[in-house]
Specification:
- With 65 residues, this protein is α+β, with helices and mostly antiparallel strands.
- The chain contains 2 helices and 2 strands, in the order H-E-E-H.
- It has one domain.
- Helices cover 25% and strands 6% of the residues.
- Strands 1-2 form a two-stranded antiparallel ribbon.
């Protein structure tokens, strides 16, 4: 998969994950010991996960999704 960035939210051709995939991804984040609940961030990539999981081509830095 291609690397994603926050700028992808502003691109017209950005593909978004369906709701089912988003829920599955964020649940895996919530279960991960690298997830910072207070800020909803990943300790590995420092992304804000509720946003990152919406991008279809995004990936977990730990390979969990």
């Amino acid at each position: 998969m291609a690397e994603t960035s926050p700028f992808d939210f502003f691109k017209k051709n950005t593909e978004y994950a369906d709701k089912e995939l988003q829920v599955s991804r964020i649940q895996q984040c919530h279960d991960c010991d690298r997830y910072i609940k207070l800020s909803s961030q990943c300790k590995e990539c420092l992304c804000i996960m509720p946003l990152k999981v919406t991008l279809l081509n995004s990936e977990c830095p730990l390979g969990k999704w």
